[in-house]
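## retry 2 of 3
previous attempt timed out at serialization; input unchanged, resubmitting
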Amino acid sequence: MQDGANIKPLTSLRFFAALWVVLFHYWHNLAVPGTPAFVEKGYLGVELFFTLSGFILCHVYLTGLGEGRFKYGSFLWARLARVYPLHIATLSGVGLMALAALSIGLPVDGNILSWRSLPANLLMIHAWGFAPQAAWNHPSWSISAEWFAYLMFPAFGWLAWRLRHRPYVAAAAAVAFLAAIYVVFERLAGFPLTRATIAWGALRIVPCFALGCATYLVWRRGGELGVADRRDQAAIGAAFFGAGILLAAQFGAPDALIVAGFAGLILSLAKLARSGSSFGSSPAFVYLGEISYSVYMICIPWQLVFVNVATKVMHLSDKKLPWYAWLVFIGAVVPLSAASYHLIEKPARERMKLIAQRRVAHGLATAQVG
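## retry succeeded, writing output
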């Protein structure tokens, strides 16, 4: 069994969620007719991230919360260290690129430099209905939604702790809630909740995060009861749900069904890890999972740069790239994300953690002197 948050196949899965989102954004720049239905469903990669987030945060923090050892301030600082530095870096990068383009007379979408939306973006509340435009680095709306879930984690955790001995009740309730809110929201709003970003993006994470928490309870209960995870059964489950998600997306299944399938895939992969299987745990895949946040956050800034430059250089009229240029375009995401991870994301996170450690040490020293 793997310890702490390090359930390696789930870390690896994060990269494939990010890649699905990247394909969703990049495919329309490829000069081929039509878009595969699976790619058109790529916006659901965000739902996969949200569901994984609920599972992992319960995995790391639920026991401490239930036993009274959870420190809300430390939790929020750790989560802020995880997401905020790269959010600010990419926001600033998009802003500087837009200003540079304007300075040389190039047209820039007016929504990108929405100064009225900047305060909400800086506070990471731009998916809460406080930003008038989808501005700056648009994918960061989901980081705003994550921040909402982090702030609400004690409520999610309190309910999960109360249901920890009834995990299947929790799972059934989470799936029912997911299905109900998708139907009700679309009837009221006129568009699917899974397409919400700046408007209602904070609500979009709620059913997925709850589903992730409930999925964790099912996995946790098996460990508490000493039920051995059979490697063959877990592998069959992972293959079944993985293939099922692909097929459901390709044949246009309802979003609720696909998102519910994420729970089965996550549970199967977590069981595989606990059974001792090395599936999805290779260093290469785990590393790709570790840089997946950078993949997600730089994909649109890189798209703005590459597509606009290629359009000028190759004299394209419709921003449709030939296949060889498109492969360079999408292939460069990984090394660029690795650079972002090592130059910005990881050192900034470690610096913020060091600040927290120093504060704790200072507090202890002050208490001892007193």
